[in-house]
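TA notes, week 10

Several of you asked for a full example with nothing omitted. So below is the full record: structure tokens for the whole chain, then the designed sequence directly under it. When grading your own attempts, check the secondary structure regions first.
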């Protein structure tokens, strides 16, 4: 298998899905833009649905690697780890806005059960990581003891990001959106968890 060609097809499809939508992009469109035969796409992925699944799997691996690096960094305090978790979450969404919207749309329409399951899987992973960081912070005295609805907190993060992307054209300081959004979600999280946030 030619990994460079496979990666090239994936990157081309990501660009086309982002600009023209999943339904509005055909295998022929991808083949023409990538300058490959349709048979090459069939060979590497089998179908457009499988291509989208491979794209999501690539994104999932990036999230897994990033979260593992954050959680495993013993030089960081738990508040610092949660701050990095939030920073990475916001940056990924804003750096790949069109694809983020595409994934959210696919999840809502539920046209592809496999894609929906993959989105649910990564959301579950994110929630587990966040939960472990909160628990670690409680055990080390940073956060107040007690149970927290981590899924609600994570959904609040995602909802805030999604609504910001929807309203982005109406925002005056577009250049500072990422910083403002990141700091806003950090503030929500600090209020949610309580305790001491000295890093």
């Amino acid at each position: 298998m030619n990994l460079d060609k496979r990666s090239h097809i994936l990157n081309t499809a990501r660009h086309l899905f982002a600009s023209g939508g999943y339904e509005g992009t055909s295998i022929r469109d991808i083949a023409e833009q990538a300058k490959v035969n349709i048979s090459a796409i069939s060979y590497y992925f089998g179908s457009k649905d499988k291509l989208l699944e491979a794209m999501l799997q690539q994104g999932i691996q990036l999230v897994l690697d990033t979260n593992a690096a954050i959680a495993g960094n013993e030089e960081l305090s738990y508040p610092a780890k949660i701050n990095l978790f939030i920073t990475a979450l916001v940056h990924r969404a804003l750096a790949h806005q069109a694809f983020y919207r595409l994934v959210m749309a696919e999840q809502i329409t539920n046209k592809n059960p496999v894609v929906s399951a993959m989105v649910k899987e990564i959301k579950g992973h994110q929630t587990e990581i966040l939960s472990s960081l909160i628990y670690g912070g409680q055990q080390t005295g940073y956060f107040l003891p007690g149970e927290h609805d981590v899924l609600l907190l994570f959904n609040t993060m995602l909802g805030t990001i999604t609504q910001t992307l929807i309203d982005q054209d109406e925002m005056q300081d577009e250049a500072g959106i990422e910083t403002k959004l990141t700091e806003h979600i950090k503030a929500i999280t600090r209020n949610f968890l309580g305790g001491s946030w000295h890093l």
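DSSP finds nine helices and no strands in the chain. Use that as a sanity check on your answer.
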